[in-house]
Amino acid sequence: MTEAFSSLFLAALAATLALKLWLGWRHARHIARHRAEVPAAFRDAITLQQHQLAADYCIAKTRFGLFSALLDSLVILALTFGGALQWLAGIAAGASASPLLSGLLLIVGVATLTGCISFPLSLYSTFGIEARFGFNKTTPKLFIIDQIKGLLLGAAIGLPLVALVLWLMDISGPLWWLWVWLVWTGFQLLMVALYPTLIAPLFNKFSPLQDLELKARIEALLQRAGFKSQGVFVMDGSRRSSHGNAYFTGFGAGKRIVFFDTLLGQLDHAEIEAVLAHELGHFKRRHIAKRIALAFALSLGFLFLLGQLLDAPWFYAGLGVSTPSTAMALILFFTAVPAFTFPFTPLSSSLSRRHEYEADEFAANETDAGKLVSALVKLYRDNASTLTPDPLHSAFYDSHPPAALRINHLQGNR
Ligand SMILES: [Zn+2]
User: Fold this and answer.
1) What single DSSP character describes residue 149?
2) How far apart, in whole angstroms, are the C-alpha atoms of residue 126 and residue 137?
3) Residue among 72, 271, 360, 366 flagged as catalytic
4) Ligand 1 centre from 279 Cα, in Å?
5) Could you tell me which residue ranges the CAAX prenyl protease 1 N-terminal domain spans (predicted)?
6) pLDDT of residue 133
7) Ligand 1: distance of its center to the CA of 173 in Å?
8) Do residues 193 and 251 lie in contact, with contact meaning Cβ atoms separated by under 8 Å?
9) How many Cβ atoms sit within 10 Å of the Cβ of residue 111?
10) What is the pLDDT of residue 119?
């Protein structure tokens, strides 16, 4: 059983890596082949120079993604068969005789190790790629402050949560996975409720929308759609990046609408209204509630699975570990599972794209579809999103439909 599981895991890891490399290679090749010409539908709005900048940017990001995928697989091999987890478990067991404390130490050790590997990657992504294409606005100082804040926040929230989960796994009997699921679900809901007012302000400034004309326009739209919120806020996204966005956050009557200041600078009022109507569409069609319910159902399924693996010796031995423990089971599970779930990515992507079309239809009914089209074209242009993704790569990964299809759909070809 142990050897069979080892082989199965290695095969899944290799297949997942091969699939990632093949899709990324196809994507970069497809973009490069269409670099010489702006697609006909976009020739009025996007220059050849802008099109080529987007092509180079997307190819650079794709290549970086391939490198990260390769590194990721090597790290997983080093952790499991390379003995890194076994080594860390030895140190943690030596540091404390309490299983709960040594379990917590092991998880902190693994998080530190993987954090040290991902830090230079995030440094290169921000100051290498984003800066080279003119999108990065963050300074080294702000970057370091962000990292430290993230670390402290992760420790303040993560450590008590992990300790609680480990404790529940040890004391609550064969149905522990159900208890852990209840705690996890409650924690997620609490985060959604607290994020807009407690966490997001640690990283950004949120100020009420000042532009009265725009505000009146937005309020009229919200009223037409029967949407109650705690107000419309502008976030200083331009401190870190010139990429623009808009989103909803929070729960029930505590919902907020947040615009990046960069987005307000890019679009005119009618376009902003159309973008907001699209976001409202997600809300009105219950996409957000559906996504949350799906995530909860999946986490219940995965916790049940972990419940079956926790006491199986082949699960540990098959991944190169000889000292079973609850903390080790958690780590191995999160290390091994992505290799098996990756091939199912298109299911989630296609559900998301269906939701995007539905939100676009809502926006087209509530506002001017032509304005959403012109807003999207500006956003593709200013964010250097490729207009010519590889169709297979797009079907596999993309949460949003490709530019040409999406605009065609908005123009009434449904
Ligand atoms: Zn959307």
Assistant:
1) H
2) 9
3) 360
4) 6
5) 28-205
6) 96
7) 43
8) yes
9) 17
10) 96
Amino acid at 133: F
Q: How far is CA 147 from the centre of its chain?
A: 17
Question: Catalytic residue among 72, 279, 366, 390, which?
Answer: 279
Q: Establish whether 219 is an annotated binding residue.
A: no
Is 366 catalytic? The answer is: no
Has 393 been labeled as part of a binding site? no
Give the distance (Å) from ligand 1 centre to CA of residue 165: 34
Average pLDDT, 10 consecutive residues per value, the chain (414 residues): 96 98 98 96 94 97 97 97 97 94 97 96 96 95 96 95 96 94 95 89 94 93 87 92 84 82 93 94 91 95 96 96 96 96 97 96 94 95 95 97 94 74
Structure-token pair, residue 405: 């299809």
- Whether 382 sits among the annotated catalytic residues: the reply is no
**Residue 69 token pair:** 């995928």
Please indicate if the annotation marks 27 as binding a ligand. Answer: no
| Residue 77: CB atoms within 10 Å | 14
Q: Please give the pLDDT value at position 272.
A: 95
For the sheet containing 206-208, what is the strand order?
206-208, 232-235, 256-260, 246-249
What secondary structure does DSSP assign to 335-381, as a single string? HHHHHHHGGGHHHHHHHHHHHHHHHHHHHHHHS-HHHHHHHHHHHHH
Buried b or exposed e, range 278-306, using 16+ CB within 10 angstroms: bbbbbbbeebbeeeeeeeeeebbebbeeb
What distance in angstroms lies between residue 278's CA and the mean position of ligand 1's atoms? 6
C-alpha of 274 from chain center: 24
CA 242–ligand 1 middle distance (angstroms): 20
Tokens of 372: 């959403």
Q: If you measure from the C-alpha of residue 361 to the centroid of ligand 1, how many angstroms do you get, rounded to a whole number?
A: 11
The two three-digit tokens of residue 406, written as one number: 């999406």
Q: 150: closest CA among 160, 140, 158?
A: 158
Q: What residue has token string 């996504």?
A: 291
Query: Model's pTM, two decimal places?
Result: 0.91
Contact criterion met (CB below 8 Å) for 245 and 237: yes
Q: Which amino acid is at 361?
A: E
